[in-house]
């Protein structure tokens, strides 16, 4: 099984820069986490953007959509900021024959207390067992991407209530 | 979705005791990891044993089998030492109507560099998407429990080669 | 030996707030670090401000000076942002009969890779062995506070070159 | 300032080996910790033994004593198991003109919750400020090495009570 991983930025990859008294998106943490997880599957990783998801543009989403569509892999994992994860998921819905799982983190992977490693495992676990479609793996749950929303105030993902 | 979690010990829960100059199985680390993962599902956790899996007896396995069978939950997650994970999985194969996923860790969850959090996510992700059966979530992969073996020398799980 | 600890904020105590897409100063991390360090001395901790040191005002420094002067303790440890640590140290120079050590961190204590715990130890070690005066403990070294500067570009503290 | 560091093993450097279901002394963690601490002093590190201090022999102590005596450095830091740290310190007492600080850890540096980084800072801080002699930096305190004992039951170092 080959997993194609696309990273787009978000809290997952944030780094603290003392010189700036600020954080910025750093290099993808996925490889380090997969190494700590001692995984035994093959993967390719491509960093598409390094942005907070609130700053993703239509052009960014067009790029994500293009790279996913053109990938030879059936299994696609996308790390993404949580604020507009559902928006990006929506532009991927029309892609056929691929299992696409988006995940992210509420706390940067570089923090001692972070959901990043667990979320990555959550997404990888779902990726291997789900049929083709677009999904979100957050808050310990697997959601069909068009049936979930981020509850910003509460800080977690939940089903869209009718 | 309610997940019933049974912990049996293993590397996952090892603690270093300076007074003993030794590692021993401590309290389950699953609750702490689920809290860091900021999960939003309900679960119940029961600690069945605190043993290295090489030390599990037939009586221990009978207990695990009984508790799993009697659980009202459909979704069962078991943390277990990696050395005899497949042995315990085998005694659970006959249980119908439940999705049972076993996982563990090659490095204790209390270590800075550990696969525990990722593996827990891997198991939780698979648990929500798999049909009834017994599975092992290790080394980044989801295996049918009777089709996998631990490659002790290499330190990972792999399909049983014909 | 009783150590009086005053915290003023800085990178040391930064927390990532997903809702704000930003880092802010959180509760002092010193107690958690001292607990992990399994220390056996008594201390009292008072949080004076929760600011980036670039934002400290004359009023803030007057408060720090007052609290240090009025403390019954001989041993004073101050955690502080690194950018203006020397400025605050300067206003404390006139205080007699106290060993005052300022420290901080280039990476928040809540990060996996942080100098915070080491720096805290560095400061506590120096505090017990130095004569009365004002010192800075950073970059693995103990400096007389009026003989050191922060090399902002390089990201470390060094002696002021003549 | 050049610090000569000698590592002898102990809990500080313990690693968990799944294949052995056991821990063993691994490669010294001091370099990794000094890098995370972003220190700006020069040091040389030599691994003399990789043993639990209960297993150190007279020959081991003779080696430690020889290497310390022959070092050109004035500042010597020794990482050591905590159980017989005072015994090794005793054989170094006759060495003149050097500041020798021994430290160790109650929890391996590779654990998430460890005193190792703080203790290393504690020792480095004291090393720069103390006069020639032999000292132990543990439990947040700096002790003259012949005036301290490890309280095994309580798990910390304390002054020898008269």
From TrEMBL, chains A, B, C, D:
GO molecular-function terms, A-Z: asparaginase activity
Name the UniProt record assigns to this protein: L-asparaginase
Segments crossing the lipid bilayer: none
Catalytic residues in the record: 11 (o-isoaspartyl threonine intermediate)
L-asparaginase N-terminal domain sequence ranges: 3-154
UniProt: substrate binding residues: 53, 82-83
InterPro entries according to UniProt: Asp/glu_Ase-like_sf (IPR036152), Asparaginase/glutaminase-like (IPR006034), L-asparaginase_N (IPR027474), L-asparaginase_N_sf (IPR037152)
SUPFAM superfamilies: Glutaminase/Asparaginase
Domain of life: Bacteria
Pfam name, any one: Asparaginase
């Amino acid at each position: 099984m080959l997993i194609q991983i696309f990273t787009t930025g978000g809290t997952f990859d944030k780094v603290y820069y003392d010189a700036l008294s600020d954080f910025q998106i750093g290099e993808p943490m996925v490889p380090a986490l997969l190494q700590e997880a001692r995984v035994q599957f093959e993967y390719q990783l491509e960093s598409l953007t390094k942005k907070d998801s609130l700053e993703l543009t239509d052009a960014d989403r067009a790029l994500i959509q293009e790279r996913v569509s053109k990938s030879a892999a059936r299994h696609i994992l996308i790390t993404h900021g949580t604020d507009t994860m559902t928006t990006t998921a929506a532009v991927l819905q029309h892609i056929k024959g691929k299992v696409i799982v988006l995940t992210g983190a509420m706390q940067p992977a570089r923090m001692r207390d972070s959901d990043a490693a667990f979320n990555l495992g959550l997404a990888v676990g779902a990726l291997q067992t789900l049929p083709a479609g677009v999904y979100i793996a957050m808050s310990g749950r697997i959601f069909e991407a068009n049936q979930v929303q981020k509850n910003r105030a509460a800080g977690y993902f939940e089903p869209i209530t009718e």
